[in-house]
Amino acid sequence: MLEIEVKARADHLPVKEQLSVMGAVFVGVQHHCDTYFNAPDRDFAKTDEALRIRSVDGRSVMTYKGKKLDTLSKTREEFETPVDGGITRNILLALGFYESGIVKKTREVYRFENMTICLDRVEGLGEFMEVEIGAESDIEGHREQIFSFLANFEIGEEDSIRTSYLEMGLEEI
Amino acid sequence: MLEIEVKARADHLPVKEQLSVMGAVFVGVQHHCDTYFNAPDRDFAKTDEALRIRSVDGRSVMTYKGKKLDTLSKTREEFETPVDGGITRNILLALGFYESGIVKKTREVYRFENMTICLDRVEGLGEFMEVEIGAESDIEGHREQIFSFLANFEIGEEDSIRTSYLEMGLEEI
C-alpha cells in the first residue's frame, strides 16, 4: 500500500471553517504518542525509513515506512499492524533497535471524498495539516488531486513539508 | 517473563493415558505454522535467539526468544504480541530480516497444576512432549518441578532436548 501524503503548516481555525463549507466529514480526535526507533545495522535518518510504535488512546500499532518515492510529497510504502505496544518495544530493543525520539500530538481527523485530512497539533512544533490518500499506484495523479484540494486553503507545492515531525523535533533541540 | 520449558521425544498415546490418570485438563488442539526469521546484523543460530511469526488457526503472534539461560532446560526470556501476520512479515523483510525456516505442527494442549503440557506432532520430525511454566524467577525450582512431573512418563534429564524444532528440521535437510 502506498501512502500519498502532503503536509503543510496551517492554522487550524480557518482550515476548519473551510472544511465545514466544503462539507468534509468530521471523524474524531486522537491522542498520539509516537515512539520512533532506529536500526542496529543502518541509520534510518540516512536511509529515509521510519519504524514507529504509535499509542492511540490506549491501543498500539507498529508502522514501517519506506523511503520517500516522490520529491513533492511524502509518498512512501507503509506497513502497519496492531500490536501490544509495551511488548513490541521490548522485542525491538532486544533485536538491537533503539529509541530515536518521541512525538506527542493531538490529531483531528476529517474525510473528504477519498482523502483523509489530519489537523495535527504537535507538542513543541505547532499546528499542521496533512492530507492523505491510500492507493496501490498513480502517485502523480493522486498528488495532483491533493494539491488541487489544498488550493482551497491557499496551500501550494512550495508549502509542502517533507520533513517528519520527528526530524523537525530533533532540529528544535 | 521467563518461559521454563523442557522438551523430549514422546509417543503421544501412552502419554495421553497417563495424563488422563493424573487428571490433567485437556485445553484444545492448535494448528501452528511458524515462520522463523534471522537478523541482518547477527546470526540467531549463533546468538541462540529466535524471532518467529506463529499463525494459529488464522490468528498470528510475533515472538522473540532470548538466548537460553539454563543448561538443562530451554528456559529463556520471551516476548510475544498479537500481530497481523502478513503485514508483520512485510515489516520484518523491509527491516532486513529474512526467513530462515518454516515449522508446521499440530499441538494438543493440557493443563496440570501450574504447568502447560504440549503434545506436538511436527511435520517431518515426529512426536514430542513439552512442559512449560511461565514465571518471573526461580528457574531451578520450576525446572525440578517439571522433571519431577516428567518422571511419571519415564522421561529424565538425559532425554531433554534443547534443540529447537527449526534447528532439528534444518539438520534433517
> Quick one: CATH superfamily of chain A?
Hypothetical Protein Pfu-838710-001
Helical residue percent of chain A?
A: 25-40%
Strand content of chain A is: 35-45%
Largest contact between protein chains?
A-B, 23 and 23 residues
CATH architecture title of chain A: Beta Barrel
Structural class of chain A: alpha+beta
User: Largest sheet of chain A, if any?
Assistant: 8 strands, antiparallel, barrel
Oligomer: homodimer
C-alpha-based Rg of chain A, rounded: 16 Å
Organism (chains A, B): Methanolobus tindarius DSM 2278
Protein name (chains A, B): Putative adenylate cyclase
Domain CYTH (chains A, B): 1-171
InterPro entries (chains A, B): Adenylyl_cyclase_CyaB, CYTH-like_dom_sf, CYTH_domain
Describe the structure.
The structure is a homodimer of 173-residue chains. Chain A has 173 residues and is α+β, with helices and mostly antiparallel strands. Chain A has a single domain, classed as Hypothetical Protein Pfu-838710-001 (Beta Barrel), CATH 2.40.320.10. Helix content of chain A is 26%, strand content 45%. Chain A has helices at 12-22, 44-47, 85-94, 139-150, 165-172; strands at 2-9, 25-38, 50-56, 59-65, 76-83, 98-112, 115-122, 126-135. Chain A has an eight-stranded antiparallel β-barrel, surrounded by four helices. The relative contact order of chain A is 0.26. At the A-B interface, strand 5 and helix 3 of A face strand 5 and helix 3 of B.
Short description:
Two copies of one chain form a homodimer. The first copy, chain A, has 173 residues and is an alpha+beta fold.
